[in-house]
Amino acid sequence: MMNFNISNANYHTFILTGIPGMPDKNPWMVFPLGFLYTLTLLGNSIILAVIKMDQSLHEPMYYFLSILVLTDVSFSMSTLPSMLSIFWFNAPEIAFDACITEMFFIHRFGVVESGVLVSMAFDRFVAIQNLLHYASILTHGVIGEIGITVLTWAVCVVFPGPFLIKRLPFCRSNVLSHSYCLHQAATRLACASTHVNSLYGLIIVIFTLGLDAFIILFSYVLILKTVLGIASTAERLKALNTCLSHVYAVLLFYVPLIGVTMIHRSGKHLSPVVHTLMANIYLLLPSVLNPTVYSVKTKQIRRQIIQVFQRRKNST
């Protein structure tokens, strides 16, 4: 009778996982995670402030960078409540509806970031292919329309996810494999058929993130074709150098994403620590490192940051 009741129970909460197998070590994670979240806010805020202050940075490339920065911050901060709940307050339980809400925002900002990276690839293609008409093609209105389209598309794509999860019964276990809510992790706990959810997740990966990756790759094929047609070697290197920051941003987003996707689909035999580590890398790596990449690789931003610190040093 006891087994029958358990098998027919339907959980209304999920349990988030801190450090698998070592719950007593969770409080120690407050310090590195707090440092990473602080670094995310500080680094991205500096990039936004520099772009706002320097009139020479009021160009399409930097407007897209501003959108990327805001997306990075939103992406990482969407998990802050659950992270604080586990590692700071030692309260891993999260309500079912709260988990679904967090899941929606995480996946939404993931799709938005992918779309912004596609927009930035288009920006680099236009800048190299048609530099003379660059500003007239990518006007403020066009950039705004691209931003709204990316945001709307992300909402439409992710919107069915919460409803597909909400219809499932959860009677086997309610312990998630990560410190925050993901559609894939929740689907694995359901005690009913999840074919629709799996198909939905696969369609998103292929026709949204996969298609975005293909468009970015195709854009760079066209960019390379244009660059190779430039006679001067110095001009070739200069043109390619303007793309380096974006290439690094693409790698920082897609490599962890591919890793998380592969682990969820074929890494069931791997240690839970690997799942947790990859999930946190996917979440925090782009938002922490993108400001550093653009500060180091973009001369205009680097110069402006140095000037700000020099003015502060002289004033003291």
TrEMBL record:
**Which GO biological process categories is it annotated with?**
cellular response to lipid
* Subcellular location per the Swiss-Prot or TrEMBL entry: Cell membrane; Membrane
Against InterPro entries, the record matches this protein to: GPCR_Rhodpsn, GPCR_Rhodpsn_7TM, Olfact_rcpt, OR51/52/56-like
Q: Mind naming one GO cellular-component term on file for this protein?
A: plasma membrane
Which residue spans traverse the membrane? 28-51, 63-91, 103-122, 134-160, 199-223, 243-264, 276-296
Q: This protein is called what?
A: Olfactory receptor
Keyword Repeat on this protein?
A: no
Give the family from UniProt.
Belongs to the G-protein coupled receptor 1 family.
Q: Which gene name does the record give? A: LOC101356516
Q: Which domain of life is it from?
A: Eukaryota
Instruction: Give the classification, highest ranks.
Output: Eukaryota, Metazoa, Chordata, Craniata, Vertebrata
A Gene Ontology molecular function term for this protein is:
G protein-coupled receptor activity
For this UniProt record, the keywords arranged alphabetically read as follows: Cell membrane, G-protein coupled receptor, Membrane, Olfaction, Receptor, Sensory transduction, Transducer, Transmembrane, Transmembrane helix
User: Residue span of the signal peptide, if any?
Assistant: none
Domain G-protein coupled receptors family 1 profile per the UniProt entry, residue ranges = 43-294
Per UniProt, what is the membrane topology?
A: Multi-pass membrane protein
